[in-house]
Amino acid sequence: EVPKEPPKIHRLDESVVNRIAAGEVIQRPVSAVKELVENSLDAHSSSINVVVKDGGLKLIQVSDDGHGIRHDDLAILCERHTTSKLSTFEDLQSIKSMGFRGEALASMTYVAHVTVSTITKGQLHGYRVSYRDGVMEHEPKPCAAVKGTQIMVENLFYNMTARRKTLQNSANDFSNIEDLLKRFSIHHINVNFSLRKHGASGADLHTVGTSSRLDAIRSVYGVSVARTLIKIETSDNDPSSSIFKMNGFISDSNYVAKKITMVLFINDRLVECTALKRAIEIVYAATLPKASKPFIYMSIVLPPEHVDVNVHPTKREVSLLNQEVIIAKIQAVVESKLRNSNEAQTFQEQI
Ligand code: ADP
Ligand code: MG
């Protein structure tokens, strides 16, 4: 039945608006872990420990040994758009840290219960404080602390019934978190990462700093992956086409998997670039049809003003200036490396 009059437009409650926005930034437990670990990395931590209960729905706890948070900043820490990393819009062009919009912690407080414990250098004790809907629930309380920050996110999506239900039925939240930390650990090879299920005695993932990328990949993904890897690198420094540097490892014909693993960092930011992934898959399908689902680790560095990191609320997908040129160049090196290794292999088999 068509109503006689048009429906009246009204302004949504701020709390509703905030919760909707928060649900976009924090889509699943793994998105909260990513934001928290990136904050720890931005705080120059050398050790980051993650504890998870119920795939992250009951508890996500991230502890680091970074620079900590000043006592005076705790009052506004979890408000929307409060950040230590960005002040003008122009800063966005040269942003080096992973966070920048001051939205992550705030978002978590709109869809979960957040408790922060932190200590800064030279202090005798730390402070602990809990947040809800962007604000402190009480004055920070002195607490024992050694170094850095610990953030606890409890009862994620407690106020989003539908989201909670769908997530409760999906068993893969823990493995998504493990997969994320594996990715971080093979890029940030100087940082120790650990992941543990709450109450478990041992860790599911534990990495120790190393100076070799290949060692890191071997310890995290196993010898069977590491021994199939070929080192690749390329760069371009032509302002009229593209400026970038790329280095990484790609699997050869001995790596056979059901799906592609593409670990991509652009300017040290863990991102997805669907176009690049497709382009590489095409090269593999044409060159090594039997090993067409490769393992790829790739780090691309380009001038910060050539990357738009602000195209997606989760900052996951990025777009690059001269993307086609860059992708074509990367495709060319991948192809030549694969051909060389294939020829070497065939030659070895013949002798
Ligand atoms: P952003 O990272 O975009 O600045 P966040 O909401 O993730 O926004 O964090 C807000 C601010 O809180 C950061 O700018 C930083 O100053 C501080 N912060 C968050 N986590 C940590 C941490 N683990 N160690 C030190 N400071 C932190
Ligand atoms: Mg952040």
UniProtKB/TrEMBL annotation:
The organism's place on the tree of life at top rank: Eukaryota
Family the entry assigns: Belongs to the DNA mismatch repair MutL/HexB family.
Protein name: DNA mismatch repair protein S5 domain-containing protein
Organism: Lithocarpus litseifolius
Residues of the full protein shown: 12 to 362 of 734
Domain DNA mismatch repair protein S5: 217-339
Compartment list: Nucleus
